[in-house]
Automatic annotation (TrEMBL):
Gene3D superfamilies: 3.30.450.40, EAL domain (3.20.20.450). PANTHER family: CYCLIC DI-GMP PHOSPHODIESTERASE PDED-RELATED, CYCLIC DI-GMP PHOSPHODIESTERASE PDEF. One of its GO terms (molecular function) is cyclic-guanylate-specific phosphodiesterase activity. Residues 201-454 form the EAL domain. It comes from the Bacteria. PROSITE patterns: EAL. This is EAL domain, c-di-GMP-specific phosphodiesterase class I (Or its enzymatically inactive variant).
């Protein structure tokens, strides 16, 4: 079954709604400007919709024109031409949705007279269709914004797309309505503290990109062992940043920025490619074969060409696909399970293994095993940490390990830091381990030295 068919057949489940709500409101809780909050929302919807570009256009208090504060994912010069346009001057689908307060669809903008004035704006970007939905102030019929969706194809919205947007329409209206608006209709400007904070984040994101360009971000390697640590199972590549001033920076301090500013795919591919190159050379040199696990952001894996990018890396580095494991954090996979399954099936066809990290930390754990072609589950270190003290953690660990065995999956215990941890987990039936008890993450040279003992 094709990817598009899987998209159209899905139903927005309660857990998907909660995940979307948490994603959209994350910036709101952080106190960021409205435009940033809305851009966060657009990223969510574009992940849900088919071949689409989204925008949220805000109305002034008199509902006569669109104003600054609009959020969009299309080029700046295009959407800026739509600002401060009076609704009755013929702004096609957007203006009609705002005036009529209902869904408006233009399957082909070049055949719609109301788009005549603006068709030259969308033409350079290859956009052919547009549909728009009014966003209401909660509990009223007052339109505070218009949510618009462009596509490079002549098409109507799917029912899935309409249902998804309808589910969050009230939330968007609530967010927009609760921000202060000047009488002129513009969103209240940032205060000095907010401007400084935003500038600081942008500068930090640019410094991460510079680190990628300069080769300052590269993998460390942490061993994964079996048989009480006597045999080598594999190694996990973990991103580290050798900052020229701050020294070694852990991934928790830069991964989120790469996701937020949409260059996480670049970072993931740098680490994956470097790890494949390093381990291919090491395998050829030593004659030893072992699994290489590489962490991939769920933001990256949802992109349509992700599997093809991995295939290209494997081809260009010569690394054997059957020794590569793509590792995804469980908590980030809650959205689009069936879409992710399509990508996973492509990877599996190459011979690549699939691993779910932090297994057991969400209520959807069993859904992942049901819908995704998983080879390995990694028992979250939060359960391992107190397994020698907490009866609950012991029961959870034992249950997950038994489940993995019943489903013929490899189970890796992360965060093993003591003999007690190892003994308990081993007695529960887990025979693959990772943690500081065996080794901290190592440089490439350190990993080469460590490997000599096997």
């Amino acid at each position: 079954m094709g990817e598009k068919s899987l998209l159209e057949e899905r139903v927005l489940s309660p857990e998907e709604f909660v995940a979307g709500y948490q994603y959209i409101t994350e910036y709101l809780k952080a106190g960021l400007p409205l435009c940033d909050v809305l851009k966060r929302a657009l990223k969510y919807f574009e992940d849900q919709f088919v071949d689409s570009y989204c925008t949220i256009m805000l109305l002034n208090s008199k509902r006569t024109e669109f104003v600054n504060g609009t959020a969009y994912s299309l080029p700046d010069d295009m959407l800026e031409k739509f600002l401060h346009i009076r609704l009755f001057d013929g702004l096609g689908t957007f203006g009609a949705a705002a005036v009529r307060g209902e869904l408006m669809v233009t399957p082909n903008v070049y055949n719609d007279k109301s788009w005549k004035t603006f068709s030259n704006v969308v033409e350079p970007y290859g956009l052919k269709s547009c549909w728009s939905v009014p966003v209401f102030k909660p509990g009223t019929s007052e339109v505070v914004a218009v949510f618009g969706v462009y596509s490079k194809y002549s098409r109507y919205p799917t029912q899935r797309e309409l249902d998804t947007l309808a589910a969050y329409n009230e939330l968007l209206g609530l967010i927009i309505s609760n921000y202060k608006v000047h009488d002129c209709g513009d969103i209240q400007p940032l205060n000095q503290h907010q401007e400084d904070e935003l500038d600081s984040k942008l500068l930090y994101a640019e410094s991460i990109k510079t680190g990628l360009k300069n080769g300052d971000i590269f993998p460390y390697y942490q061993p994964v062992l079996t048989s009480d640590g006597q045999k080598l199972h594999g190694v996990e590549a973990l991103a580290r940043w050798e900052h020229p001033e701050k020294g070694l920076v852990p991934p928790i301090d830069f991964i989120d920025h790469a996701e937020e500013y949409d260059f996480i795919d670049w970072l993931d591919e740098v680490i994956c490619r470097r790890a494949c190159e390093d381990m291919k050379q090491l395998m050829d040199l030593t004659g030893k074969k072992f699994m290489l696990s590489v962490n991939i952001s769920a933001v990256h894996i949802r992109k349509k060409d992700f599997a093809q990018r991995i295939e290209t890396i494997l081809h260009e580095t010569g690394f054997p696909a059957n020794y590569l494991s793509i590792e995804i954090t469980e908590t980030s996979l809650i959205e689009n399970l069936k879409d992710v399954a399509v990508t996973f099936q492509h990877l599996k066809s190459l011979g690549v293994k699939i691993s779910i990290d932090d297994f057991g930390t969400t209520y959807s754990s069993l859904n992942y095993l049901k819908y995704l072609p998983v080879d390995t589950i990694k028992l979250d270190k939060a359960f391992i940490h107190d397994v020698d003290k907490s009866p609950i953690d012991r029961r959870i660990c034992k249950t997950i390990i038994q489940l993995g065995c019943d489903l013929n999956l490899d189970v890796i215990a992360e965060g093993v830091e003591s003999t007690k941890h190892l003994t308990i987990i081993r007695d529960f039936g887990c025979d693959i381990y990772q943690g500081y008890y065996f080794s901290k993450p190592l440089t490439l040279e350190g990993w080469k030295d460590y490997l000599e003992q096997f």
